[in-house]
Amino acid sequence: MEGVRFGFEMHLDGTSKSISIFDDQFIEMTAEVKILKTKTAENTPWRSISVVTVMAVCTAIQGGLYYSSIWPYLRSLNSEVTDIFLGFVMSMYSFGQILSAPLIGWSANKIGTIRPPVTVCILCQVTGNVVYFLAQEAPSAYAIYVVVLSRFILGIGSVNLVLLDTYASTASLPRHKSRTISLVTGGVALGISIGPGTQLFFTPLGKHGIELFNTGFSINMYTAPAVAAIFFNLIALICVSFVFEEVYAGLNSQPREKLTDTPAKKLKIDWIAIFVCHATGFVHYFTFSHVETLGTNFVMTVMGYSEENAIQYYSICFTLLSIVELGFYGVYVFGKLEKYGSTRMKCVFGLIGFFIFYVTTFSWSFLPGEMKKFDNSDLIAFRNFNGSEPIGCNTDTYSWCESVKPVNPWVYITALSVVIGLSFGILNTTLSTLFSDVLGPKKQGTQMGFFHMTRNNARMLGPLAITGIYESFGPRFAWMLQLCMLTFNLVIFAVFYHRMVPMAFPKHQTHPVDDQELTPTTQKI
């Protein structure tokens, strides 16, 4: 879940200015707004925070519902669909976020409340899921483009999480802020972990499923996720309409001097350190797009699983991955792991984890066994009900079927769930912190915006690049691209490791001095 993030802060005298609120997924928007018609409270509104957490779970669930079934669904709509088109479909989600988030963030600041924008986002999610469901009866030449449209609309609706996370940040007292943000972040992680597991309940429906009143529309293992997502959307809609009370406790406690837009002195940014952070963020999200895009296709082609078994297998993989990641968040927050080790070293560990995943799941030439193979004649016979479902690598589609070795399913599921799960958790909790520290004690909206834009672009461009390489040259070259990117990232991190330190005022100086520039002071982060 990525996109553009905004923030605002209000005062009792009727004025309001933007503040920076960051996490590892969203871009800050800064804007001045007029008086906001919201309630204030003396204590953190835990009831409202709990409702927001429930809505975050409902929104995040649908993100994981489609990971394993979208590729088989596209193939059922149009047998000629390519891997490159799959990448295009996946990238449209991020494209919708990038285009819509600034407008939604601006509108929330303009009207002074998050309730209407949240409602609009939820309705967009409902619309996107309905369109996804209806694609099954669209003409085969257009059905896959209906799926593209649904992904774009769902991307717009997912900006909902920006608003919910922002509310958790601004509604709480300063001493409760880390706890409220952790609740919403944990809700997102819980939703993502539930999503793939929910897909397991739909697998018994099979490809044909249950037809609805002789309309031609069926609830099957491809379309049931959309129906389930609509159900969760309706729960979120009920919550925001009838249960959620937009109360802010943090409005009285923030001094106005904290909102200064122009620092009293100019801070000299270390652009080399900024570049390293950007490179790490790009590789981080590029890796995620690789895992979510190629997963089911890789399992079907290289491991020789049927569509139904591949969906079930990859649902289990992502469920375990999300559980590991959620467990890491819990340990990190309640075990106070931020006190142990430097932030920059934790980022390095996250990158090393990615590297280990690609090495252990690489299709090495010395691996035993051969991939199962079939050709178009087997596929035609199956469609004419004259044979069983062909499994493995289609030699008429992929030129690399003879040279690639199968990967052990147990090795893959372990590496994906444990290694990638931990690495995602590490980078999600440390990289944005490192980048913010490198920028120093100043307004960070513009730079943080560029940083998150880099990561969103990785999620948009990643599926297109990876699927193109995979289709033309096979999984080995797709894996080699990731290994080269990670090697480059680790090398520049090692070379400039000493520069990945906080920007801070000298210890003897608590306020900036005019006409003096600050350079990084070496601290442990």
TrEMBL record:
Location of this chain's protein in the cell: Endomembrane system
Keyword Metal-binding: no
Keyword Transmembrane helix: yes
Transmembrane segments: 46-65, 85-106, 118-135, 141-168, 180-202, 222-248, 269-291, 311-335, 347-367, 410-435, 456-473, 479-497
Keywords tagged on the record: Membrane, Transmembrane, Transmembrane helix, Transport
Superkingdom, taxonomy of origin: Eukaryota
An example molecular function term from Gene Ontology annotations: transmembrane transporter activity
Mode of membrane association: Multi-pass membrane protein
Secretion signal, residue range per the UniProt entry: none
GO CC annotations, alphabetized: endomembrane system; lysosomal membrane
SUPFAM superfamilies according to UniProt: MFS general substrate transporter (SSF103473)
Name assigned to this protein: (pine wood nematode) hypothetical protein
